[in-house]
Design goal:
By secondary structure, this protein is mainly alpha-helical. Helices cover 48% and strands 8% of the residues. Helix 1 crosses helix 2, helix 2 runs parallel beside helix 3 and helix 3 runs antiparallel to helix 5.
Length: 131
């Protein structure tokens, strides 16, 4: 049986130290995955940034964004870059063993690559002062 646990990125008052201590302890305790949620109007850490902090201090645990409010992130290329950077931090690149074992991270990486390809293929017009 595999049991995952949430990263307290959306818990008010969580410190940066707690945001790195928690995933380290979860990894050492044998949890199978560590997930985040995304909220915009709430005093929380952004999920990709929080998972990047977790990736830096863990070795085995799978990382997942259980909710990522993609439509509210206007720059698809930046989201793709953030997710691909997280993937690299989580194990050394797109073919990392940890990313391959993590379906949510692999799916997010796949979406990021598609978003990046769409942005390069059909860049949106630059905003004007009227926008």
């Amino acid at each position: 049986m595999e049991i995952g646990i949430g990263l307290p990125n959306a818990v008010p008052g969580t410190t940066g130290q707690q945001l790195t201590d928690w995933p380290r302890a979860a990894d050492e305790a044998g949890f199978s995955s560590l997930g985040t949620i995304d909220r915009i109007v709430y005093p929380n850490y952004e999920p990709i940034t929080a998972l990047s902090a977790a990736a830096a201090v863990t070795k085995r645990i799978r990382l997942a964004t259980t909710v990522l409010l993609g439509p509210l992130r206007m720059n698809a290329a930046m989201v793709a870059k953030q997710v691909l950077s997280l993937d690299a931090l989580a194990g050394g690149g797109p073919l990392s063993a940890r990313a391959q074992r993590s379906r949510p991270l692999a799916a997010t990486r796949c979406l990021a690559l598609r978003l990046l390809n769409l942005r390069v293929a059909r860049p949106s017009p630059l905003p004007t002062n009227d926008d």
